[in-house]
Amino acid sequence: MSDKKTLIEVKGLKKYFPVKKGLFNKTPSYVKAVDDVSFTINKGETLGLVGESGCGKTTTGRTIIKLYEPTDGQIIYDGVDIAKFNEKQMIPYRRKMQMIFQDPYASLNPRMTVGDIISEPIMIHNLMDKKAAQERVQYLLNRVGLNSEHANRYPHEFSGGQRQRIGIARALAVEPEFIIADEPISALDVSIQAQVVNMLEDLQEDLELTYLFVAHDLSMVKHISTRIGVMYLGKMVELAESNELYSKPLHPYTQALLSAIPIPDPDEAASKKRIVLEGEIPSPIDPPKGCRFAGRCKYATEKCREVTPELKDVGGGHMVACHLYDK
Amino acid sequence: MEKEKLLEIRNLKTSFYTHVGEVKAVGGVSIDLNKGEAIGIVGESGSGKSITMMSLMGLLSENGKIIDGEIIFEGRDLAKLSEEEMQKIRGNEIGMIFQDPMTSLNPVLTIGDQLMEPLIKHKKMSKKEAWDRAVQMLSLVGIPSPESRMKQYPHEFSGGMRQRVMIAMALACEPKLLIADEPTTALDVTIQAQILELMKELKDKINTSIILITHDLGVVADVCDRINVMYGGLVAETGSTRDIFYRPKHPYTWGLLKSIPNPKKDEKERLKPIEGQPPDLLKPPVGCPFADRCEYAMKICMQQRPPLFEVGEGHKAACWLNHPDAPKVEPPVGRGETNE
Ligand SMILES: Nc1ncnc2c1ncn2[C@@H]1O[C@H](COP(=O)(O)OP(=O)(O)OP(=O)(O)O)[C@@H](O)[C@H]1O
Ligand SMILES: Nc1ncnc2c1ncn2[C@@H]1O[C@H](COP(=O)(O)OP(=O)(O)O)[C@@H](O)[C@H]1O
Ligand code: SF4
Ligand code: SF4
Ligand SMILES: [Mg+2]
Ligand SMILES: [Mg+2]
């Protein structure tokens, strides 16, 4: 990938959720789910997003495609800032950006046939007449490795892997450019995971798709991603090309995260040194100032507790937010 | 090395009777476990891993029944014990951890009450003794300020902490056997690492035997001494962890190992999934259950179920390729090592 054209540029993105405290509490508190995050996604690439549960991966994805209203920041899609667009202005973008969900069981309407599930977005966007839509459904079913007859069946008649294919066919129905896949394989068996990942890779190549891929299986994220962003408590703490990130993690949190991956090789597992992180991820409600990892970081200094480290390029596009790399 | 047996499952068969017929969930499974040993059970969903364990614990649902086989635990056949007798063993001699700690903890009881209950019931401890022991267990599993945590309810704990409470509870009575069914699947890798380290410690320090059910081959490689690979309600292959990873002898094991990405490799290799679907346990195939997904299948595979061939010391594989008359096949994975 030599010509890196930016598809999406996110600048200073914030998403705060208000939390209800006691009845007589005057100052409202916020869950700072995404707190001043900036990054770019290039055309045709897969950006992986990893981090502990609750760190803001899903919220980041959903805010970019404006399923959530951003609290602050810019979302520049193909040169246009859509952050403050209203529903009407968003219509053309709703088609370009689609989402694949984690749970293939919950995300499909059980009372609709597979054909209707897949063609629904086409109808919503008024893209073609019923007959053409049916033809497109046939094409899509074949594209994701299902049969044309499957169009008349209901979701419960399919296995988890097949349902995930149906979800993917639905996302592809309106010819999107950008797809957010939020834990698309977590609910599937290992051998089925490989089928779905291969399919996502083929589709990306044939249809020139750009992916944001969220997952907690770090080996799979490395396999599928061009670049990977690591999030911690609402912040992007490191972002690099995927081989670079795995071979040369800079942020102490990334180092701990990668050392915790179970290696499917008994000899290597026995010789591997694991950095076991003490404690848990702190609450994102009114998080501490300074570096948010300071409470669990063995390198933390006074400065870390006072000054929030900025995400900076330390060479070759490898970005890290940590005072250890201040010049 | 003198090894003492703790558990011996012999030819276990368990079925469910449903409105569409008999589901043969477990079709004749044998598993051995020594004292102080950790074994893994791997295999895709529906292969019978959990039902094997439920049979052992006497926790099958109404429509489920053990049809045949023995489950010898310390000289007693658990398959023949009454529910009353099993209650004395569950949560006492055998501890359990399940995948979803929220459904296994009682939401209206404090963590402390739930930890103390089995100690008072099984170990006949006084309230004071049980309290002290429970606090001790919570700190053992790494819960900070355990005294004040005792008075909290499950919803006040994070997912990782609830899972550690489950482990504390499973271990409070110092069971001889700990059964963990997908204990870390829902957890983050960092928390998973904490739990796995804890399980290894228990095995080494208090000689607990562990059965770990998981679909994560990385987890078994790290924790287990031996592995049982299950497929279609049967054991497909059993051996030491190094046997299974470095010299596997069953095409299903090969398929499993090929389908996972190698985080060590820099260049991107395409993943190799196992195509096709697992067998329908309503009408299990007469021959090898893996036959219609197996690229090496021969005529005999469709007609006769392969026995567990002894392919090395303590290493067995249920595949006709290991018959002396079968054609020689080069395994696509492993290190091509022969048996030690
Ligand atoms: N609708 C909402 N209202 C209030 N808080 C929310 C909402 N959605 C998410 N949050 C909070 O925002 C934070 C980030 O959540 P998010 O779902 O983005 O996490 P995640 O990184 O995707 O985690 P996981 O790996 O568990 O899916 C969490 O603290 C979560 O509790
Ligand atoms: N209560 C039940 N009634 C009928 N069939 C069941 C029941 N519980 C499990 N089964 C079937 O038994 C087989 C083995 O299930 P299980 O042991 O849960 O698999 P896993 O290996 O995923 O743990 C599956 O085919 C499953 O559908
Ligand atoms: S900024 Fe300080 S506390 Fe934060 S990760 Fe770097 S060294 Fe640790
Ligand atoms: S017995 Fe036959 S079908 Fe079964 S795994 Fe071996 S070669 Fe394949
Ligand atoms: Mg999420
Ligand atoms: Mg199970």
UniProtKB/TrEMBL annotation, chain A:
CDD domains: ABC_NikE_OppD_transporters. GO terms for biological process: peptide transport; transmembrane transport. InterPro entries: AAA+_ATPase, ABC_transp_ATP-bind, ABC_transporter-like_ATP-bd, ABC_transporter-like_CS, Oligopep_ABC_C, P-loop_NTPase. Keywords: ATP-binding, Nucleotide-binding, Transport. Residues 8-258 form the ABC transporter domain. The keyword Chloroplast does not apply. The keyword Transport applies. SUPFAM superfamilies: P-loop containing nucleoside triphosphate hydrolases. One of its GO terms (molecular function) is ATP hydrolysis activity. Belongs to the ABC transporter superfamily. This is Oligopeptide transport system ATP-binding protein. It comes from Fonticella tunisiensis.
UniProtKB/TrEMBL annotation, chain B:
It comes from Fonticella tunisiensis. One of its GO terms (cellular component) is plasma membrane. This is Oligopeptide transport system ATP-binding protein. Keywords: ATP-binding, Cell membrane, Membrane, Nucleotide-binding, Transport. NCBIfam families: oligo_HPY. Pfam families: ABC_tran, oligo_HPY. It is found in: Cell membrane. Belongs to the ABC transporter superfamily. Its main location: membrane. One of its GO terms (biological process) is peptide transport. It is a peripheral membrane protein. Residues 7-257 form the ABC transporter domain. It comes from the Bacteria. GO terms for molecular function: ATP binding; ATP hydrolysis activity. The keyword Cell membrane applies.
